[in-house]
Design goal:
This protein is mainly α and 261 residues long. The chain is 80% helix and 2% strand. A two-stranded antiparallel sheet has the order 1-2. β1 (98-99) and β2 (103-104) form a beta hairpin. α1 (2-18) crosses α3 and α7 (172-208) packs antiparallel against α9 (218-234). It starts with a helix and ends with a helix.
Length: 261
């Protein structure tokens, strides 16, 4: 999957070049990455929903007690996501940030995203290794990816507004403004309403139930906690931005965009 997503990213880069986006520029690289991410999230969400809804939700549950088709689907989904994380870590934070004689040059945000990818991969790999806790990983994946398609569309539109080839598209600022409102609402529902409850229940099940401590080694559950809560804390800045966006509304934002353009 890592190789497949790398090819997909390069394909999207060529498509953007064809539409007039500048070659070799950071914005074009970023937009192609968002398009690949959009494909990842839209492909994995239906599978995660089907698997999570098919069985009783027990965050610490063991996979061996589930039907074989469920075990196969779970391993496929987690392998798919792991492949994406490996691809994006290499392409986004090594290949595209590489400077001759220096190596990869990463910003503070780059390090945060790279850290997220590494921790997410470790969570999934360790859940598959211990054959338990996979439901907690998939629930976090589902909630995290649910807003990703709209988010990636938002980020692509944001970059498109800055490109010369897109300056003549009159409806683009309006589309961006209304999509931004939709994204902000969905993101707040996921991160502010659902995520704290989901992570709290995962924490309770893994650490404070006999079943959880039996099925998942306590030391591993303790290691998972910073991964669970760290992502939530890391989303605070996005949460605040989304709240301000909803307060402003699409009309005021469109006026600002038209003034800039």
């Amino acid at each position: 999957w890592a190789v497949g997503f790398s090819i997909l990213r390069l394909f999207f880069r060529q498509v953007l070049y064809w539409f007039g986006w500048p070659a070799g520029e950071t914005d074009t690289y970023f937009a192609s990455a968002c398009l690949a991410s959009f494909c990842h999230s839209t492909m994995i969400l239906p599978g995660l929903a089907a698997v999570l809804l098919s069985q009783k939700y027990v965050p610490s549950g063991k996979i061996d007690s589930s039907p074989q088709w469920y075990q196969d689907a779970t391993h496929s989904l987690m392998g798919f996501c792991t492949g994406y994380m490996i691809y994006d870590s290499i392409m986004g934070y090594v290949v595209e940030t590489w400077q001759p004689g220096v190596g990869p040059v990463l910003s503070s945000d780059d390090w945060l995203y790279l850290g997220h990818h590494i921790l997410t991969t470790l969570y999934m790999v360790s859940a598959r290794w211990t054959k338990a806790g996979h439901m907690s990983a998939m629930m976090l994946m589902f909630n995290g990816e649910f807003s990703a398609p709209i988010m990636n569309f938002h980020l692509i539109l944001e970059k498109a507004l800055e490109q010369e080839c897109c300056k003549g598209i009159a409806w683009l600022p309006a589309l961006f403004a209304y999509n931004e409102q939709t994204f902000s609402f969905v993101y707040l529902v996921c991160r502010l309403a659902i995520s704290p409850v989901a992570i709290s229940y995962i924490t309770y099940d893994l650490l404070f139930t006999k079943r959880g401590r039996k099925d998942v080694p306590l030391w591993l559950s303790i290691l998972w906690m910073p991964m669970c809560w760290g992502v939530q804390l890391g989303s605070i800045s996005w949460i605040m931005t989304c709240i301000e966006t909803l307060k402003q509304g699409p009309t005021s934002h469109m006026a600002g965009l038209h003034a800039e353009l």
